[in-house]
Amino acid sequence: MENNGLKVVGVSKLADPKQGELSLGIEKQIEIDGVGMGVLSDGTPFLTGRGLARLCGIRHFALQELTGEWLDQASKPRVTRLKEILASRNIVLQSPYVEVIQNGAAVYAYPETFCLALLEYYSLDAGSNVKEQAKQNYRLLAGKALRDFIYSQVGYDPRQDVPDAWRQFHDRVSLTYNSVPAGYFGIFKEMADMIVTLGQSGLHIDEKFVPDISVGINWSKHWVAKDLSTSLGERIKYEHNYPSYFPQAMSNPQEPWCYPDAALGEFRRWVRYDYIGDGRFAKYLDGKVKERALPASFAQLAISAYTEE
Predict the structure, then answer these.
(1) Per-domain residue ranges for the chain?
(2) Do 305 and 197 meet the contact criterion of CB atoms below 8 Å apart?
(3) Strands ordered across the beta sheet of 105-111
(4) Distance, CA of 65 to CA of 17 (rounded, Å)
(5) Who's near 141: CB < 8 A, 6+ residues apart?
(6) In 106-191, where does DSSP find H-type helix?
(7) What is the mean pLDDT of residues 218-246?
(8) What is the DSSP code (8-state) at residue 206?
(9) Is residue 56 within 8 Å of residue 131, measured between CB atoms?
(10) Among positive and negative, which fits the CA dihedral 7, 46, 168, 272?
(11) Which has more pLDDT, 165 or 268?
(12) What is the strand order of the sheet 184-186 is part of?
């Protein structure tokens, strides 16, 4: 198989396996010369089990055996070594594949991180089972090459394929990236964990739900009341912009405060125990409900999602 300057060895053409529409987890997929590949809905590139086995020069049954051993308490040496390879890259996988459903049947998508670890294993660590085919493909696909290869073959652009539910948060992050001067932190970036937690519960940021404004106002009052600049350093202004489709963009560029990094510990303590703990977050949400900017169910779910985190 040769595409975009990459020649992946040891793959002959086979009839495409019967495939239907995946109901969960697959953004795009394709099969080239018998190697199935695609991208999950979160942007993770993957290979099918048969495709991965072919790249490694092993039987599909051998890969099935290996994945069956993954959760055994007494791991076999090859599983132990694979987990060590992944751990060296700060990766822990509960399972080597992601299970999705296709026409009522389970399909196993092996993420790129596991694929590279398996290629490395069969290139260097498999002893008498080292495969020349795996060596050649590992040289071609190590690092970001496998990810880029899959993206190019399925026609996926990670810069553009942001799920609609996350689009507004993504656009705000893009506009604020690196806008805060070194040595300081901005409220929006520090509130990203709250926004992500809410988003994972299905409650996504939009022009009506901008919690960093409320947090910024209340934190500024706390900063002044406690005279924190004396002990933690002076705060300064920086340029912050909203996406053009936000109503707040009419007054771009904004000039909110950013705070010295020395204040991060106090800020995070204040958010958890003061802003959320004493009910100011709930008050902000209740205000939005009264303005009819948010439904009451959103406010209830938001409080539950974040306070239980």
Answers:
(1) 2-154, 164-307
(2) yes
(3) 26-32, 35-40, 45-48, 105-111, 98-102
(4) 21
(5) 6, 8, 55, 116, 119, 149
(6) 112-120, 132-141, 145-154, 167-176, 187-190
(7) 90
(8) B
(9) yes
(10) negative
(11) 268
(12) 184-186, 257-260, 236-237
pTM (whole model) above 0.85: no
The pLDDT, as a whole number, for residue 303 is 62
Give the separation between CA 12 and CA 179, rounded to whole angstroms. Answer: 50
Residues 264 and 262: their CA atoms lie apart, in Å, by 6
> Rounded distance, CA 117 to CA 111, Å?
10
Enumerate the β-bridge partners of residue 37.
Answer: 30, 47
The two structure tokens encoding residue 138: 């590992």
The three-point CA angle 194-198-201 to 5° equals 150
Structure tokens at 207: 């022009």
Q: Return the closest-CA partner of residue 266 out of 214, 228, 211, 217.
A: 228
Q: Which of 148, 143, 103, 123 has the alpha carbon at shortest distance from 58?
A: 123
Distance CA 62, CA 64 (A): 5
Residue 45 or 102, more confident: 45
First to last CA, the chain: 47
41-88 tens-digit pLDDT: 778 889 999 999 998 988 899 899 988 888 776 678 889 899 999 988
**Residue at 19: amino acid letter:** Q
Cis link prior to 211 (omega < 30° from 0)?
A: no
Buried b (16+ CB within 10 A) or exposed e, 121-149: bbbeebeeeebebbbbbbebbeeebbbbb
In one-letter notation, the amino acid at residue 190 is E
Neighbours of 114 (CB within 10 A): 24
Angle, alpha carbons 275-281-283 (nearest 5°): 120
DSSP reduced 3-state for 207: coil
Structural contact between residues 227 and 217, judged by C-beta atoms closer than 8 angstroms? no
